[in-house]
Amino acid sequence: MHDQPSVIELVQAVKAFIDETAAPQLKGHAAFHARVASNALATVMRDLEQRPSAEAQERAGLIALLRAPEYTPTETLNQMLSMRIRSGDMTLETPGLLKHLKQTAMAQVEIDQPRYSGLKTAKA
């Protein structure tokens, strides 16, 4: 079997090149764009590492909350949830709804903006 770098290893290598080799030699606008690229790659790495687990938790939460069959596609589950909230069938008083919404939002923030100041507070 051919052993090759994983996607995350490739992204890490590019990020390391930007951070350690390219960025220190840049100034002004180019240095800013190097930081933006590095931050984007960090987001990609977090997404690769965390999204599968976050999506599995979201899916399990939706199935439990909606009492839906296991085979229901996640997109359909989210549409069902949206319709029930919009119609008033589910409100913040619905057991488990607020917890599900908070957990799903926090999982996304952990990927997109893990240093967001409110994240630590929300987790507590």
Topology:
Elements: H1 7-22, H2 28-66, H3 74-87, H4 97-112, H5 117-123
Helix pairs in contact: 1-2, 2-3, 2-4
- The best one-word shape is elongated
**Would you tell me the overall average pLDDT?**
94
Helix and strand content put the structural class at mainly alpha
How many strand elements? 0
Order of helices and strands: HHHHH
Low-confidence stretches: none
Task: Tell me the number of helical segments per DSSP (H or I, 4 or more residues long).
Answer: 5
Largest sheet: none
**Total domain modules:** 1
Key attributes of the depicted protein:
124 residues; mainly alpha; 74% helix; elongated
Short description:
With 124 residues, the protein is mainly α. The protein has helices at 7-22, 28-66, 74-87, 97-112, 117-123.
Provide a descriptive summary of the structure in words:
This protein is an all-alpha fold. It has one domain. The chain has five helices and no strands. It has helices at residues 7-22, 28-66, 74-87, 97-112, 117-123. α1 packs antiparallel against α2, α2 (28-66) crosses α3 (74-87) and α2 runs antiparallel to α4 (97-112). The chain is elongated and about 60 Å long. The protein starts with 6 loop residues before the first helix and ends with a helix.
